[in-house]
Amino acid sequence: MKTADVEKLYSEYVLPTYKRMPICLVKGKGSRVWDLEGKEYLDFFPGWGVSGLGHAHPRVVHAIKNQTKKIIHVANNFHILSQAKLAQAIVTNGFPGRVFFGNSGAEANEAAIKFCRIYGADGNVSGGARNEMITFTKSFHGRTMGAMSATGQDKIHQGFYPLVEKFLYAEFNDLESVKKLITPKTVAIMLEPIQGEGGIRVATKEFMQGLRKLCDEKDLLLVLDEVQTCMGRTGKMYAYQHYGIEPDIMTLAKSLGSGVPIGAMVLSRRVKKELFVPGTHGSTYGGNPLVTAAALAVFYAIKKEKLIVRAVKMGELLAAKLEELKAKYPVIEEVRGMALMRALKLSVNSDAYAAEALKRGLIINSTQGDVLRIMPALTVKPKEIEKAAAVLDLVFSTLQGQDLRLSDAQSKA
Question: Is 60-304 a domain of CATH 3.40.640.10?
Answer without folding.
Answer: yes
